[in-house]
Design brief:
This protein has about 525 residues and is α/β, with parallel strands linked by helices. The chain folds into three domains: about 5-275, 4-Layer Sandwich (Purple Acid Phosphatase, chain A, domain 2); about 280-410, no CATH class; about 470-520. Helices cover about 25% and strands about 15% of the residues. It has 15 helices and 18 strands. It has a six-stranded mixed beta sheet with strand order 5-6-7-8-10-9. A five-stranded mixed beta sheet has the order 4-3-2-1-11. It has a four-stranded antiparallel beta sheet with strand order 15-18-17-16. Strand 17 and strand 18 (about 515-520) form a beta hairpin. The protein is elongated. Mean pLDDT is about 75; it is low at about 280-285, about 295-315, about 315-395, about 400-415 and about 465-470.
Length: about 525
Amino acid sequence: MSRTTFHVLSDLHLDTLSLTHRASVVKDACAVDARNLILAGDLVGDLIRPKNLSLYADFLQRMVDRFEAGRVFVLLGNHEYFGGTYEDVTMAAQGACDRAKAVLLKPSESFKVLRDDGTPAPLRLTGSTFWTHIPPSAEKLARSSIGDFAQIQGGWSVQRHNLQHQQDLAALRSHIERANACGEQLIVCTHHAPTSVNTSHPRFDRCPRNCAFASDALHQLSHEERCAIAAWVHGHTHYSGSQVLDGVRVVSNQRGYALEERAQETRFDPTFVLDVMSSCHGVPRGAQEVQQREQAVQPEHEDRHHEKDAQQLSPQLRSVLRSGDPLDADGVQYARDVPDRDPIPPQAAVWSAERQKGRQDVVPEDEGRHAGYQEDHGFCFFKNNAECYRTPRQVADALRIYLPRSVKRQRNTPLMLMPPPAPMPPPAPMPPLAPMPPLAPMPPLMLMPPPAPNEHCRAMRPRGEQNAKKSARIRIGSRFQSVQLVEEIRAHVGITVECGNLRARLASATLGGLMFELLDNDGKVQ
C-alpha cells in the first residue's frame, strides 16, 4: 500500500527570528521527504501588520514551491489574530493563501487527500484554530494572564471564545458523520490541543491556565466518532509529541521560540514525517514515534525529572522496537520503515490496534520468536513461550535497561529490594529547665567630683570667658591699596571711637584692615 505522508510544523514565530534563523527554518522544511505539509498555526504574530503579512506570504510561497507535488494546509493560530479583529485577520490570511495557492483550513470545509503516488486515499482533512473552553472558575485568571483577550481586537471575550469552541466542535462532528457515511477517515488539524494529557511540558501538568491551551474535545467524542479519526495534529503548547489516546494518534511538531528551541524544551524534530496510513495501524514513523515506543517500556519513576539518570536502551530492545513481520491478520502492523542498524537479528514487536478495544491480544505460538504487546505502561514479552515479563519493572530487569546509575548490580543478577528501615523510636522528653535565680541589684553609680579650677589652664576657663576673649578684638575694613594711607592711620593708633553703646580703641592698622579693641565702661580692654 502506498504511503500518505505529511510534514508537520507549527509555532515557528518567524517574526521573532533573525534572518539567519529564518533561512534555516526554510532549509530544514525543504529537505524533508514528504508529499504534503501541515502548518498548524502561529507562523507569525500580528498578521494584520504589513511587515508580518509580507513575511507570512513569502514563507507560504516558498513552502508551496517545495511541496508542489502535494498540498500545503495552513491553520491560523492565536498569535496571528493579535493586533486585529477576527474577521480582518481571517480575510488577510485568506488573501495570502490564495496568492500562494495554499489551502487555508476552515471549520466548515474538508479536503480530499491523495497518496504519495497520486492515487486517491480514503482520507479527508479538515481543521480550524479550535479555540478552547474556559470554565467560569478560570475566567478571571484567563482574562488577566492570557494575551488573547487583550491582544485580539473587536471585543474578543471569554464568552465569544467559548462560543467559537462550541461552533468548532459542532463542525468537527458534522465532518466525522460525513466521513463515516462515505467509509472514509478524517485527519483533524487544530492549533489548540484536543487534550491536556501529555500535550504540554510536565511542569504545567496542574497549571490552572491549561484550559486556554488545550480542550477536552477528544474525550467528548464517542467511541464511534473517534474511530473515524486517523490522526489529530495540533500545536500551541510548544511541546512536541506523538501518542495514542483513546485509539486516536495525536501528534505535534512545534519549534517554539528561539530560546526554547536551543534548550530543546519543545522536542522539535525538523525531519518529522507523519505517515497517516501507517499511523492508523500504529506503525511508528520517524524518530519521534520510535522514541514514543521506546518510552513505553520505560519503568515508572517516582520523579519524572530523574529519567535523565537512566541508561540508554539496549540494542536488543531497539531491535524489538524497530523491526518485525506480521504475526496475524488482525490489523497488527510493525515498524519496517526504520532501518535496523544493530547487528542483532530482527525480532518482532507487536503493536496492536485491538488493544484500544479493551481486550488483550493472543500471541500465536511461534517457537524461537520474541513477541510482545502493549499493556498499560509496558510490554508483555513471551520469550520462546517460556518466560513472561508483565510489568515495566520486570521488562527492565530482564533486558537490563533504564536502571538508575546509583543502583549497583552485577550482570544477570536480579535486582534485590532493600527492606524498609525500622521506625525510629520517639525521642525522650526533655527535663524541665531549672528557674534562673534573680539578678542582684546593681550598686549606684559613683559620680566623679569636678576638677579644681585652674586659672592658668585655658581649657578649664568657662566657655563664656573664652567667647568674650575672642570677641574683644574686632577687625574691620578691607585691604588697603595705599601704604601711605596706612601710615597716616597708624599715627592715630590708641584713639577711642564710640558708636552708640560700643566703645573701641584703635589697636593697629595694616594693609589687611584696621584692628580695634573693645573697651568697657571704665575704659579698660575687655
